[in-house]
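To: structure desk
From: M.T.
Subject: fold request, one chain
Message: Could you run this one when you get a chance? Sequence is below, nothing fancy, just the single chain.
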Amino acid sequence: MSDPTAGPAAGLDAVAAAFYGLVTLILRNRPRDISPTAASALSTLNRSGPQRLTDLAAIEGVSQPSMTVLVTGLERAGLAERRPSPDDGRVVLVAMTPAGADYLRSRRRTGTAVVADLIGELTAADTAALAAAVPAINRLTELDAHRTAATTHSIEAHR
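Reply: Done. Structure tokens follow.
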């Protein structure tokens, strides 16, 4: 008798669970000099460019006062700055600094090295399977970027 949980949805759940496990591994081995929320906010600024503080808070799913504290910490670390909007001098935007961009690159290199070391322990067949999945994995990242852009657009439309 066939297992009804072994259909396509179960396969997708297995893929999602495997990715979740990989993300957990990466997060466990990440640099801990800034919070995950601060790193996420920097990544958002890197992908989307300068943002209003309130918009950045909405994108990151935190309160505006929490984002204010977070951005202040990023400013003190030299990773982000507040600047007037070129469209409206009354509006302040949060932008990533060159040091913030360098920090993100370094953080990615560190994370990549951890995963690369583990991949180096796999068989050639497993490594080839992962290599074949790279386009689909990159597409997931693109889909997330589109969602972030849609969230930003929705926030701007409600102003």
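Reply (cont.): The mean pLDDT is 87. Let me know if you need anything else for the meeting.
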